[in-house]
Amino acid sequence: MARVMPRTSVRWRVVVVDDHEPSRADVKATVSAAGGEVIGEATRAADALALVTSTRPDVAIFAVGLPDGDGVAAAAAVTSATGCPVVLFTSHTRDELVARAQTAGVMAYLLKPLRPAELAPALDLAVARFSETRQLRQTLEERKVIERAKGRLMDRLNLSEEEAFRRLRRAAMNSRRPMIEIARALLVSESVTEGVPRI
Questions:
Q1: pLDDT (tens digit, 9 = 90+) per residue, 135-149?
Q2: Which of 6, 21, 148, 174 is 20 to 30 Å from the Cα of 99, by its Cα?
Q3: For residues 81 and 122, what is the distance between their CA atoms, to the nearest angstrom?
């Protein structure tokens, strides 16, 4: 297991999960040459989650074939539990593998043997795609919360959709808080007062 190292001005902080020592050495050298740093290494799928959790890298590189399991399944577990983008490192490009990797949330591929010119674009792409995906997901979730709050205002105060939205926006501006915070507060207060008779 790797120890947690302080953040510095490196291009990416990387974790590598691969049981093949020469492959790990190639990745480590190539990451370093591209301005990054390998902050942790593991050889088994069972160690991947703990390693990523403790080191909190910018991106992780997983081999597909690991001695104790499947790198794609390990990547899925790590991505959902830690919010770390994963790049697969494999010599296979079968359609079935690509489909499983997409379902697992894998952000990019590196093919074995490693070609140094491909590493930096793959890692940059993985980090950027993951950030965009997370931002889109957060925006969508916030919109759903605002829509629910707007619906509650419409029902409770017999308002039009436009008027309910204006009230939320006005409350946000008056309190100098984001609209999502106002919407969440409204929904919480509604849930607390549900079933309580009005005086």
A1: 888 888 888 988 999
A2: 21
A3: 22
